[in-house]
């Protein structure tokens, strides 16, 4: 059997991936043994989960249609149906677009490395790993707590609903309905006894797995963002040693024309050379690195620039190669991070758009439901529970999207705050290109409709509060 | 040219904060000495206990919405004062570092023109301080003498309804409690005013520094002193970042509660009988809390405006004919300064005039809803 080795993001996110596979998502890669029989077994498990989810969802929907007479019931059932629509959407979305997820998970399989920056890289990698694990624990605890809370609140209070009195059209009576987590229509009578117990267990499974489907995918998305942010922190940190590496001497006036050593430009070189050397005296004051850097890179070898290969920036050949390779490492790593963020956006953007659509409608209806709260009872608890859960889901991905925007826009500040004025011309050009490139922050968008940031969360929260206040007035 | 003392502008602030126990002597944070003891006693007695007694009073009138509103709108401002003092003491070390940095050589104005420029920038701050201070004192005095003017002193009513574990009605206790409330309210309002204006002063310093830098860039000989300008620019950016870190939470808490505070105060005003002492007290109070928010937003906006002038000043410098290295450095300065310095509260709200308008608008909507509900 081939030895199963994981690397890159897959290795970091293995617990998350195993949980996703366990909950029945269509993630069929990343197993040690992918032989025919086991593969069919896993595929079967996923299909069975899908069938159960869709069946229960169908029962919910039928119940919505049957109880559409009463406004209160209609509102409550619509909220429940929308809530589970979101969970089913995430499930089906993953099944349909799993290739993009595999691509994103495989993007970091071969990162570049540089001997100077290995320690920093490993440190930030470990930091990212720690944060991703912590996030996963929090999500697991939150999902389990929500499922348990939902189950326990089913057993509180009366299990009734109001319908029109068959004798008198103007009165309403309360009629008992089965004590279940979610109101649904079943072809069998689930009021009591064995059918009730079995239906209850099925519904507990349904609620728990639906919540897990949605939350685990969100947690995967946020873990990717955590990783990208820590890589950006690593890049910001190595900017300073990179600049120090390329700092120039004070005795040799740099001739920038020599940087662009194209053979055809030799004739132009002479012209610029004359101009430059006549202005030697002016430039002496600007570059006086010796006292600045405490002289750690100034070796004796750099002084004799006649004999022994000192390049145009006053550095030895070896040092210049080192600087160039360090700059190359930085640029390649930054491009890799940009590729990762683009892949994340492609994989998850549409899911976020669909999430926001369902959430907006659901939160509007919840605002309406909230105006009918009269005291501290089961109704108030369920409405507030739904509200908090929906807002927490939106907050979860908004806060990590916001962090990505902040980290990527502060790269320019980090580049400017290192001692670039002591660096070589090549390093200064590098800083200039970095500053220009990083003026625009990297962000995740919901299929280009909106940007994921805390502004989005604030506008959602503001909208809910506004709807609530307006509806309270209209009562 | 003698050294320009930046701390001269804020010496009243420092004196008031010293009295209240919020400015340890020297350049250090709180140490184990007499002043810390004095600070702990004064803050606990006059600020924390006073606020507690007012807030606990809410629990005695839980049912009446009007009574709650009338207590809440004062106790919100007092709670903010407690929180601000807490954050100030926690970040005292950072504040002292900032005070040392502002007096360093890099930040000194280098010519008489620059001195004039700085004085000119500090004037609006001084005016704002005087106005804010006078409004707060007027509100505080009007409130405290309200029992005297409307005769409720005969019933031994306190200026601020509060809960005390003892019965304050009998004669000696009543005078002592009255005096205690008078002093505590004074101390708390002065803490509020001085912390707000201190933060505004930090913003004004950043703005003045940006002006000095712009003047330097326009006039100085770039070949010799470009390095000095770059160092100055970086020092300004670090100073702004540290100031922001210092008042992050203070501004966040302030903005959050200002909306509610202004709405409730306006609501209370509509329920008052016009031209009594109470009414005047409330008018002064509403003006004071509006000025409070305005002071934050206006001077934060100034910082953004002044730092947005740096790219233009760089372009106006004598770069023509200078070598390529110098010009490349100028490009880098422009690239960095095109992103202006924005002061923010935890990166959620930016201190700008837009935020001020948003707060005013939200306060008005909450005020309208409160009117509807009763």
UniProtKB/TrEMBL annotation, chain A:
Keywords in alphabetical order: Behavior, Cell membrane, Glycoprotein, Membrane, Olfaction, Receptor, Sensory transduction, Transducer, Transmembrane, Transmembrane helix
Protein's cellular compartments: Cell membrane
Keyword Membrane assigned: yes
TM region positions: 43-66, 78-96, 135-156, 204-229, 337-367, 379-400, 449-470
Species in which this protein is naturally found: Zophobas morio
Primary location: membrane
Keyword Nucleus: no
The organism's taxonomic lineage, starting at the top: Eukaryota, Metazoa, Ecdysozoa, Arthropoda, Hexapoda
One Pfam match: 7tm_6
Name this protein carries in UniProt: Odorant receptor
């Amino acid at each position: 059997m081939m030895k199963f080795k994981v690397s890159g993001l897959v290795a970091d996110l293995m617990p998350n991936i195993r949980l996703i596979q366990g909950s029945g998502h269509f993630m069929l890669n990343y197993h040690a043994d992918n032989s025919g029989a086991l593969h069919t077994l896993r595929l079967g498990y996923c299909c069975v989960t899908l069938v159960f989810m869709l069946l229960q969802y169908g029962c919910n929907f039928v119940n919505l249609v049957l109880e559409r007479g009463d406004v209160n019931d209609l509102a409550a059932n619509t909220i429940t149906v929308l809530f589970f629509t979101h969970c089913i959407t995430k499930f089906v979305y993953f099944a349909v677009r799993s290739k993009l997820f595999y691509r994103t998970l495989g993007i970091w399989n071969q990162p570049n490395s540089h001997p100077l920056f290995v320690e920093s890289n490993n440190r930030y990698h470990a930091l990212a790993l720690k944060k991703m694990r912590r996030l996963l624990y929090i999500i697991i605890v939150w999902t389990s707590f929500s499922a348990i809370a939902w189950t326990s609140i089913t057993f509180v209070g009366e299990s009734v609903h109001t319908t029109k009195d068959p004798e008198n059209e103007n009165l309403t009576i309360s009629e008992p309905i089965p004590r279940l987590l979610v109101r649904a229509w079943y072809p069998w009578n689930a009021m009591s006894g064995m059918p009730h117990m079995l239906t209850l267990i099925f519904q507990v499974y349904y609620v728990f797995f639906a919540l897990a489907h949605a939350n685990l995918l969100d947690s995967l998305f946020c873990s990717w963002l955590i990783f990208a942010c820590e890589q950006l922190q690593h890049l910001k940190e190595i900017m300073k040693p990179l600049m120090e590496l390329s700092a120039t001497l004070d005795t040799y006036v740099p001739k920038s024309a020599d940087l662009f050593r194209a053979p055809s430009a030799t004739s132009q070189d002479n012209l610029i050379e004359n101009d430059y050397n006549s202005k030697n005296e002016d430039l002496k004051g600007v570059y006086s690195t010796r006292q600045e850097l405490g002289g750690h890179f100034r070796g004796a070898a750099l002084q004799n620039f006649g004999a022994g290969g000192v390049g145009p920036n006053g550095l030895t050949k070896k040092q210049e190669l080192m600087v160039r390779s360090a700059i190359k490492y930085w640029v390649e790593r930054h491009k890799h991070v940009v590729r990762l963020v683009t892949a994340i956006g492609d994989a998850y953007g549409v899911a976020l758009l669909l999430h926001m659509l369902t959430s907006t409608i659901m939160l509007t209806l919840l605002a309406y439901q909230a105006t009918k709260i009269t005291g501290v009872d089961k109704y108030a608890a369920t409405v507030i529970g739904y509200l908090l859960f929906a807002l927490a889901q939106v907050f979860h991905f908004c806060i990590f999207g916001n962090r990505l925007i902040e980290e990527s826009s502060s790269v320019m500040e980090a580049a400017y705050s290192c001692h670039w004025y002591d660096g070589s011309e090549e390093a200064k050009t590098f800083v200039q290109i970095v500053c220009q490139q990083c003026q625009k922050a990297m962000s995740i968008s919901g299929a280009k409709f909106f940007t994921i940031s805390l502004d989005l969360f604030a506008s959602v929260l503001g909208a809910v509060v506004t709807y609530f206040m307006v509806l309270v007035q209209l009562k | 040219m003698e050294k320009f003392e930046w701390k001269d502008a804020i010496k009243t602030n420092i004196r008031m904060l010293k009295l209240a126990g919020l400015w340890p002597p020297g350049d250090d944070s709180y140490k184990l000495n007499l002043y810390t003891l004095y600070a702990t006693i004064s803050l606990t007695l006059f600020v924390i206990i006073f606020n507690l007694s007012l807030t606990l009073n809410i629990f005695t009138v839980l049912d009446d919405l009007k009574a709650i509103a009338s207590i809440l709108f004062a106790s919100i401002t007092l709670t903010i004062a407690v929180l601000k003092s807490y954050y100030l003491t926690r970040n005292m070390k950072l504040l002292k570092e900032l005070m040392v940095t502002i007096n360093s050589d890099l930040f000194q104005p280098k010519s008489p023109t620059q001195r004039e420029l700085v004085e000119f920038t500090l004037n609006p701050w001084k005016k704002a301080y005087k106005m804010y201070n006078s409004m707060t004192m007027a509100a505080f005095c009007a409130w405290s003498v309200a029992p005297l003017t409307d005769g409720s002193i005969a019933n031994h009513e306190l200026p601020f309804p509060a809960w005390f574990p003892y019965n304050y009605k009998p004669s000696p206790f009543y005078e002592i409690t009255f005096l205690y409330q008078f002093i505590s309210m004074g101390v708390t309002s002065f803490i509020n005013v001085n912390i707000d204006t201190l933060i505004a002063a930090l913003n004004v310093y950043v703005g003045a520094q940006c002006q000095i830098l712009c003047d330097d860039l326009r006039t100085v000989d770039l070949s010799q002193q470009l390095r000095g300008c770059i160092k100055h620019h970086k020092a300004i950016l670090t100073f702004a970042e540290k100031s922001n870190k210092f008042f992050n939470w203070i501004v966040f808490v302030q903005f959050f509660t200002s909306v509610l505070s202004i709405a409730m105060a306006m609501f209370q005003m509509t329920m008052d009988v016009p031209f009594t002492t109470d009414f005047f007290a409330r008018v002064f109070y509403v003006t004071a809390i509006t000025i409070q928010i305005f002071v934050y937003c206006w001077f934060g906006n100034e910082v953004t405006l002044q730092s947005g002038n740096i790219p233009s000043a760089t372009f106006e410098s004598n770069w023509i004919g200078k070598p390529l290295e110098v010009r490349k450095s100028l490009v880098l300065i422009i690239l960095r300064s095109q992103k202006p310095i924005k002061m923010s509260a935890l990166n959620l709200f930016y201190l700008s005039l837009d935020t001020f308008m948003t707060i005013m608008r939200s306060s008005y909507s909450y005020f309208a809803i409160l009117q509807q509900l009763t």
